[in-house]
């Protein structure tokens, strides 16, 4: 039974080499050219933890239809060299009948490739580059892959010209000569993996990463201040925000550490500016005390956590969904807040914008759980629809009757003044307080304010944005997941349908407060549920079990990163279940 995507609709390739050789640049050129040719696709990068050097790989999937995740196997692997290959080669297996292109001067391919059922061809990439004055191995690789996949040279040169234009016509001509050399060499391999685009050439698509998309969403949501300390794999959020905030009259400040950055955005928000920071697991750990301060003082902020492999420093450049527990339960004391997770690169735009709306409307901290696999993936997507939210803080208006910053209201949200506003002075800190904001050790004040914070979050209308339910709504088989693994689950549903097996996908965007009513409705009629998540301990499964009964037959597909769960693994689990 076929459990793979039709290869005539998809082709996957990897370009590997030492850091600095331009493997990722080559992959980016080919992906962008594919978009101009009307194809869909995505690029993941695999790099070592070193600041410079070490291993580097561009992992690219091109498709005639929207691509939601990386392929499990690769049709083409181009090796600029084999240095440090032992660190990454197991993560990019070559498919049966696939092609490995290796420079004989770079040594023997790894044994795992020699013993696999693929074709290994020698190509003197280094010599070819040296024969061209100023030639680069990565541009030879662009030509090799372009010929094998049928990507139009016209589109490739459009991209190359744009990238090299600042270096002058000579650099462009050298690039063209290298690409032509690669094309000529590949023509002699007697192998091809051509794709035929469904769309017209030059179809208008976005080429964007999840980190860029969440930054754009935040800007659309009204963010005008960001403070952050750079950390892999979240730094690109900040790199995107820095110039774009400046163009909207906002500002980004690089702090000395994560402790400073979280306190800076609390201060900016207190001053009336919608504010955001971005970090990863180690930084989120450092921010926990101040996140509690934001919850207690009801100061709206957004923290984007681009998750990576942990614990501690872990693998900074690889992906894992293991920060769910700390995001939901890491605050000391009862500190109601919101945790949401984008379901794809495209959804990072919506989720980023939605996070600002929630924070500003509810005056609460919001944590956005992205991860490396969507944060740093560059994807060709159709332009997302514009979304608008009625985002506005509840303002304070001076009536001359005195100001109670934490007044009890029908919706639980109290009017919030800004510094300097006449009659709007109040004490803002982390102490238990009365409705005025004055510190209090009163039992009644503690209970009253705690219930106020809880009720405003739990009673808020999150609408249909809690998550998605797709596939056969009448099927009793449900694949239940969250965040970035939604893409793999989507493709698994399609493959199962092609093999005559119905299933439905339910994926949560809203992690906390837990959307029990919406999820219960989405699971109506289910008898078997497969939980899919990328962490060792099944945090998502345990989170759901803590909130609701699961009167179903349940299985779990979960493991720690960095090897991302692929669609075929989900399909295999369902097929095995279906056969019993």
CATH class descriptor of the largest domain? Alpha Beta
What proportion of the residues is helical, as a percent range? Answer: 25-40%
Q: Please tally the helical runs, counting DSSP H or I stretches of 4 or more residues.
A: 18
Name the average pLDDT. 92
- CATH architecture classification name of the largest domain: 3-Layer(aba) Sandwich
- What are the segments in which pLDDT stays under 50 over at least 5 consecutive residues? 1-7
Distance between the termini: 16 Å
Write out the CATH superfamily name of the largest domain.
Pyruvate-ferredoxin oxidoreductase, PFOR, domain III
Order the strands across the largest sheet as they lie in space. Answer: 6-5-4-1-3-2-14-7
Radius of gyration: 26 Å
Major sheet details: 8 strands, mixed
Count of the domains: 4
Overall form: globular
Class derived from helix and strand content:
alpha/beta
How many β-strands, per DSSP? 20
Can you summarize this structure?
By secondary structure, the protein is of the alpha/beta class. It has helices at about 25-35, 110-115, 125-130, 135-150, 155-165, 170-185, 210-220, 235-245, 260-270, 280-295, 325-330, 345-360, 370-375, 445-460, 485-500, 515-520, 540-545, 565-580, and strands at about 10-20, 40-45, 55-65, 75-80, 95-100, 120, 205-210, 225-230, 250-255, 275-280, 300-305, 340, 365-370, 380, 465-470, 475-480, 505-510, 510, 530-535, 555-560.
